[in-house]
Amino acid sequence: MMLPLADLLLTPDAMSAVDSAAAASGIDSYGLMEKAGQAVAAAALRYFPGAIRYVVLCGPGNNGGDGYVAARALQQTGTTVRLFHLGDPQQLKGDAARAFADCPIEGEAIGGYLPQAGDIVIDAIFGAGLSRPVPDDIAAVIARVAAAGIPVIAVDLPSGLDGRSGQVLGAAFRAMRTVTFMTRKPGHLLLPGRELCGELEVFDIGIPGRIVRAHADDLLAENTPAQWYAAIPSAGAETHKYKRGHLIVFSGGPNATGAARMSAMAGLKAGAGLVTIASPPDALGVNAGLLTAIMLHAVEDEASLRAWLADRRLSTFVLGPGFGSGEKARQFCLALADRHLVLDADGITAFRDDPQQLFDAFAEGPTRLVLTPHEGEFGRLFPDIAADETLSKTDKARAAAARANAAIIYKGADSVIAAPDGRALINANAPPWLATAGSGDVLAGIVGGLMAQGAPAFEAAAAGVWLHGLAGQHAGKGLTAEDLVAAVKPL
């Protein structure tokens, strides 16, 4: 499926290559800058018509060029415009120099800007063209603007934000709106970048789609149904419960059974035809008293599990929620190495001392393992990857997926789902109130339920994360895990 240009994600380097290729093809690059600056000016007038003055902060590159165009366009409408520049604008090159020459407003050094009530700041200092911490004088301006509560419109990206990783490079503006061009960048979706961008507008300045797509990362996108819907089995008129798969969720002991029940019910709600809780014998009574649609099977130890696994129809498992992180978790996980497994919570932590043992068990054949680590768990399984500050969250998830031959759900408010083949999706539909006890158990169950129906590991993981976010939206603020399960709907 060919995604609309606005749905693609291009790194800053890739977008620079697009700009160069557009210019090389004969397209008037200054005309593109003119359209970009005019779009910024239009956004300022549309969303902040009551501004007493528009304050345009221009940097030393093409982002600053967009700012000079925007300043000129705003002045032509009769508004009050103040212009501040970083460095000597007489040293500008190329299109940015032309934009400066065409701007009739005399500017001042950026360090002299003092916010006033009624200001609207247009941040055209760095955009995506920054890969090092912001200079001290710009950090001081950012601090003054924040302290005064002045609304900011960012051009491309808030200055100080890394467009590749979404991380802050020392200091960054918190924009109320961001206007970017042609496509989004990963930093528009990854946190904290997503929050710092405010409302995001993607404006088409006229670069041909063929040029943009030629430089796009086809393996990276936002997590939406367009990325996986075709791979998720749908129920037909002839479907019955045995065709919709059998999911098994392992329970902890008698004092730790609730997490497994949450996962099991989520798997059932996500569409699995049958769901069984595999319970220690001493927890059977607790589980039996609280189960209705979920079946129950006693599994005491590795030997009893392996005997049960003689039934090859048992293909998909969730291990970890409330299970305990000791030797038993490791034994059970390794016994399931030829099945489809969602390894969550305690199941992940069980391999903190020897993660390679886990990776080796699932190394051969198609991807059948889904790992769901949050930040701490990710660091336990992949300590070197987690510690590499040169990598974005997307980079880390991809590296981990390749190492583990697993689909990785690197959890958080900006969960990244990655596959061993390099595919990666950034999720953006999760409301903040999903951060509650039991939420991860529900996610594991949804993913397991989709895998039980035959969805491939990566697509099940991506769809599960998206459905989990959708359920959180429907359940609303103040949700509990029980509310979240009740809100889970199948595709």
Give the helix/strand class. alpha/beta
Describe the biggest sheet?
Answer: 10 strands, mixed
Number of strands: 17
- Approximately what portion of the residues adopt beta-strand conformation? 5-15%
Q: Can you tell me the overall shape?
A: elongated
Radius of gyration: 26 Å
| Tally of distinct domains | 2
CATH architecture of the largest domain: 3-Layer(aba) Sandwich
> What is the straight-line distance between the termini?
19 Å
Which strand order spans the largest sheet, edge to edge or round the barrel? Answer: 8-17-16-15-14-13-12-9-10-11
Average pLDDT score:
96
| Helix run count | 20
Stretches where pLDDT is under 50 for at least 5 consecutive residues are: none
CATH class placement of the largest domain? Alpha Beta
Give me the CATH fold name of the largest domain. Answer: UDP-N-acetylmuramoyl-L-alanine:D-glutamate ligase
Helix content: 25-40%
Name of the CATH homologous superfamily of the largest domain: Ribokinase
Compact overview of the structure:
This protein is an alpha/beta fold and 491 residues long.
How would you describe this structure in keywords?
491 residues, alpha/beta, Rossmann fold, UDP-N-acetylmuramoyl-L-alanine:D-glutamate ligase, 2 domains, 7-stranded parallel beta sheet, 20 helices, 17 strands, 15% strand, elongated
